[in-house]
Specification:
Its cofactor is Cu cation. The protein has 2 helices and 7 strands. With 183 residues, the chain is α+β, with helices and mostly antiparallel strands. It folds into 2 domains: 74 residues, Helix Hairpins (Orthogonal Bundle); 90 residues, Cupredoxins -  blue copper proteins (Immunoglobulin-like, Sandwich), CATH 2.60.40. The radius of gyration is 24 Å and the shape is elongated. The termini are close together.
């Protein structure tokens, strides 16, 4: 799905960054293997060279740092909360989700999956519900996610959010939508 939040855009950019590094490393390894298979090794003095050993020790460390630093930055961005505009609590049940708007009194509802035989053409099986959650656009929203009975997973892929709902534990996630839509 297309990115609808700044967090998802950061995750996509990091994916492209890591994929490019992996592609370059794989190309280099394939090139070296093809050279080893097609040529004869005539320079045996390179096997004892200290410079080559330093290069193949330091180069992977540099590559790991190039991957780790952006990854850590994104990890800290996902946990950052600056005065949320709205708090929404999602409670997972065996066959449905309950939502509570914690900032307002007595504003809660249940959301059940629409049965397959009630689906209209163009609707997605196992993704359509009877009561959709409505959230404001361009606002920081804090999600509190828990479960009543078993483990669940609460996810909105286009917003870059996926959090486990565990009974007896309250997990927290932040989301913000930059465009209107159905996610």
């Amino acid at each position: 799905q297309n990115a609808s939040s700044p967090m998802k855009e950061e995750l996509i950019a990091f994916h492209d960054h890591a994929l490019m590094i992996i592609f370059l490393i794989s190309s280099l390894v394939l090139y070296i293997i093809s050279l080893m298979l097609t040529t004869k090794l005539t320079h045996t003095s390179t096997m004892n060279a200290q410079e080559i050993e330093m290069i193949w020790t330091i180069l992977p460390a540099i590559i790991l740092i190039m991957i780790a630093l952006p990854s850590l930055r994104i990890l800290y961005m996902t946990d950052e909360f600056n005065k949320p505009y709205l708090t929404l609590k999602a409670i997972g049940h065996q066959w449905y989700w309950s939502y509570e708007y914690s900032d307002y009194e007595d504003l809660a509802f249940d959301s059940y999956i629409t049965p397959t035989y009630f689906l209209e053409p163009g609707e997605f099986r196992l993704l359509e519900v009877d009561n959709r959650t409505t959230l404001p656009m361009e606002a920081d929203i804090r999600m509190l996610i828990t479960s009543q009975d078993v483990l669940h997973s609460w996810a909105v892929p286009s917003l870059g959010v996926k959090t486990d709902a565990i009974p007896g534990r309250l997990n927290q996630a932040m989301l913000a939508s930059m465009r209107p839509g159905l996610f």
